[in-house]
Amino acid sequence: MGRLSAVLGRLSAVLGRLSAVLGRKVALTGAVFSPIIAPMGKTTEVAADRAYDQTKTVLPAEVARGVYMQNAPSLRALKLMHLMIGTAGGRMADEVQHTMRLSDIRKIDGMAHHDRTSITPLFGELSAATLIHDDKEKMRVSIGGIIDDAQIDYREESATGDLVVSWFFGRAFQRMARDSNHWTILDRQTVFHLGSKYSVLLFQHISSLTNLQHITSKTFTVPELRALLGLVEGKHKRFAELNRWAIKPAIEEISQLSRLTLTATPNKIGRTVASVTISWEEKEQTQKQSTKAELDRPKVGRKARRDGTAETPVTAFPDFGSVKDTQPWDRIARDNAPRIDGRHVPDLRVLADTFRKWCGEKSIPLDMRNIEKTFTTWCKSYSPG
Fold first, then answer.
1. From start to end residue, where is composition biased (Basic and acidic residues) (predicted)?
2. Which of 184, 17, 177 is nearest to 95 (CA)?
3. Could you give the CA distance from residue 172 to residue 143 in angstroms, rounded to a whole number?
4. Are 34 and 59 in contact (CB under 8 A)?
5. What is the pLDDT of residues 318-343, one digit of tens each?
6. What CATH number is given for 214-297 in this structure?
7. Residue 218 DSSP code
8. Reduced to 3 states, what is the DSSP secondary structure of residue 280?
9. pTM to 2 decimal places
């Protein structure tokens, strides 16, 4: 009896050590194992099955539709998020370290010139964004982040100019992906070509609803729509401003660059707009061909083509970098920006970054028809920080 107790004791100790080992990160695979394996939902299965298709991203409907973001990321950070989810694919719910290269990020429209300095704050934005998902069925609200512990390895930077980026998705995101049985398949080309974060957030939400039977519209209260679009408190407070700078441009851009045609109808109670009904319909094949042709064209002049004013050539303000030696922006900045100490031209990269940030806050597209005039006026009041 004594020997049996000793054997059982040693067995218990071995099992304890095995459990501890399984709980550690395995260096060879980068995976973290747990003695208890939770069943996966269908979304991760679909994402794994479609891993071959680099033109589409499988997004959990809970992320696209039922989740609202606090501290919503910028347009570039949202595009990066979609690339990260697409890269993870069927492993998006796993407690593993995902990796990709800077060269992958540079393939995204508008992000071709990114480097270590410029992508670092994008990961900061994604780390600061908070997902809030109210699961009505389970009567449970989940609050958590999109990513956790992102790292940028720049050991190869001096030799190749490339970087290795790695990250863990946050537990809240992992849980949503793991439990998800509903998904939307997004066309990456459309997402990467959209020109505002409002368009991306609205597009992913509406896309998650398009395959539901007999549903071709959804009505949002104004506060719900503001939350969906990631608007901070105090921005575009009046509905007229909200409609002009966020809703209408997003509706028009999504209709131009996606397989869907959207319409927005305000609903009033008295003289106050209380809600907005957004309707959608699938484009006919000829319309889809026109959309594909637009996506394949340079984005310069896209807004003018959307507005029907494309007969006048449009010069877009650069998406990234300095305006030094880039005309007409270099000349406009030198002619209109106040000189430092009355003599020196301000740093043109800082000036350009500040103008892009200002345009983003005002929801002004960089390829707007009057962007040269806007930049000229803005330069006259520019003051380096």
1. 282-299
2. 177
3. 7
4. no
5. 988 899 888 899 999 998 999 887 77
6. 1.10.10.10
7. E
8. strand
9. 0.70
